[in-house]
């Protein structure tokens, strides 16, 4: 079973997507299930993990309503205010929804690089662990040392690193990122998403530009902890859904079929405890 472990929907009229501006013209419009379903069918993808794109509870409720109407959405990664005193209560409430599988604070957009280590966030992380939810770490290379510290504090927390931690592919930079990702893979049980790489590479990317980064992630996390996702529709800033999937098939052409199957579906089912 193929699973797209990272996709988004949004409706501009909601007004809670502060990052989504007219300058991002190709994706500055509504993207809803009717737009994605033909792409999934063409790619032979049976289900998706729908990930938040706005820091609001209202958007999370919107995504859960979509999941309730469209069975191909196998799980929803939402948002709560980790700083709020009622965060554990909100997490417990959302955890009762059958499609709710995880949470993602938008760490990449938070000015304080040490935010994730704040003591007042510990109850939220503890509540996630209590309810068996997955933490999506939306981080940049500069956050990786702190992410290691965070996971050392919460060793039982199930974690997925989004977008390979957004390496600087456009500039061809491996140093620093590569060592930090290797340390995370060795010291923690974190999964890592092979998603978002094309947008980090830029519009003129070639599969060869992605290969050193994909190879490093595969070597460090192995075929048992690497997860494929499209990051659609954000990926369309640099590639169509089909082109990113084609590049993925090229990147993993030399590995056993069972390992490809795990990366393209099986690992997502484990990382998010998805129901069949």
What is shown here, in short?
By secondary structure, the chain is an alpha/beta fold. The chain has helices spanning 33-43, 57-69, 87-95, 122-130, 144-153, 177-187, 197-201, 207-221, 241-251, 257-271; strands at 3-7, 47-51, 73-78, 100-103, 134-137, 158-161, 191-194, 226-228.
Describe this entry's structure for a reader.
The model has no long low-confidence stretch (mean pLDDT 97). This protein has 276 residues and is an alpha/beta fold. The protein has an 8-stranded parallel sheet. It has a single domain (3-271), classed as Metal-dependent hydrolases (TIM Barrel, Alpha-Beta Barrel). Helix content is 39%, strand content 13%. Helix 5 links the parallel strand 5 (134-137) and strand 6 (158-161). It has 10 helices and 8 strands. The termini are close together.
Give the strand order, joined by hyphens, for the main sheet.
1-2-3-4-5-6-7-8
Largest sheet: 8 strands, parallel
* SSE series: EHEHEHEHEHEHEHHEHH
Q: What is the arithmetic mean of pLDDT?
A: 97
Instruction: Name the CATH class.
Output: Alpha Beta
CATH third-tier fold name: TIM Barrel
């Amino acid at each position: 079973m193929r699973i797209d472990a990272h996709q988004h929907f949004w409706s501009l009229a909601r007004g809670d997507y502060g990052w989504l501006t007219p300058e991002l013209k190709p994706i500055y419009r509504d993207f809803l299930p009717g737009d994605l379903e033909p792409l999934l069918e063409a790619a032979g993808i049976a289900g998706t993990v729908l990930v938040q794109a706005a820091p609001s509870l209202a958007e999370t409720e919107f995504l859960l309503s979509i999941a309730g109407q469209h069975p191909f959405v196998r799980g929803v990664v939402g948002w709560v205010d980790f700083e709020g005193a009622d965060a554990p209560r909100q997490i417990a409430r959302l955890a009762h929804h059958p499609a709710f599988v995880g949470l993602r604070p938008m760490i990449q957009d938070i000015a304080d690089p040490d935010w994730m280590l704040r003591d007042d966030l510990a109850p939220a992380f503890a509540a996630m662990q209590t309810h068996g939810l997955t933490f999506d770490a939306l981080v940049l290379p500069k956050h990786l040392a702190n992410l290691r510290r965070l996971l050392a504090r919460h060793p039982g927390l199930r974690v997925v690193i989004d977008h390979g931690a957004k390496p600087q592919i456009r500039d061809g930079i491996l140093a620093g990122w590569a060592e930090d990702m290797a340390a995370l893979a060795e010291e923690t049980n974190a999964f890592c998403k092979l998603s978002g790489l094309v947008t980090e590479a830029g519009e003129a990317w070639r599969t060869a530009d992605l290969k050193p980064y994909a190879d490093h992630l595969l070597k460090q996390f192995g075929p048992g902890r690497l997860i494929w996702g499209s990051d659609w529709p954000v990926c369309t800033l640099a590639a169509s859904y089909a082109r990113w999937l084609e590049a993925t098939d090229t990147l993993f052409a030399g590995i056993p079929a069972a390992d490809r199957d795990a990366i393209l579906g099986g690992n997502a089912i484990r990382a998010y405890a998805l129901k069949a």
